[in-house]
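Chapter review: from sequence to fold.
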Amino acid sequence: MSDAFVHPTALVEPGVVLGAGTRVWDSCHLRAPSKIGRDCIIGEKTYVAYGVEIGDRVKLNAFVYICNAVTIEQGVMISAGTVFTNDRFPRATTPDLAALASSEPDDKTLATVVREGATIGARCVIGPGLEIGRFAMVGMGAVVTRSVPAFHLVVGHPARTIGFVCRCGEPFARFHEGELPAEARTACAACGRRYEARAGVVRELAGAAP
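The token string follows.
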């Protein structure tokens, strides 16, 4: 925990690894074992479960809930009130209602990964067993029930693709659901980075702006 700032009201359990320059704000609860990288911001009243791994330069806003089996790569933004889940069919008790069901991870616990550079908007719900692709953007209030490809912009209940988004955060293509172009090349009007899309798969082209 060397060179990390932890607010006096935060609960950071022994066994949590905090990278240098990371700031943990008031009333957070970080459970162990978990790992948080360098230069991260953990916003107030955020909960991070055991078994979570978070990369460098990640921003978690206030009231974020990150459950077990979630991995967050570097440079990710997770906005206020976002909730992750890891079980498709949870129950509080055993089938006969005689005892509480175990809260420990088991074969029904599904892992989710948020790839580098992605943004998840405020008040989103992320379903279990999904991948949020590199530099994807999930619009505020979305309910994500299937994986989001890299550079896709998704919104809604359930979330659906409505465009493509640049590394810089600006959308460079917009369209209705089901109207993804079969093939297209375009550049971001804001920064000049160039992209190619084929059958919904977006990749960066050489010669893009730095």
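Two observations follow directly from the output. DSSP finds no helices and 26 strands in the chain. The domain at 5-91+108-178 is CATH 2.160.10.10 (UDP N-Acetylglucosamine Acyltransferase; domain 1).
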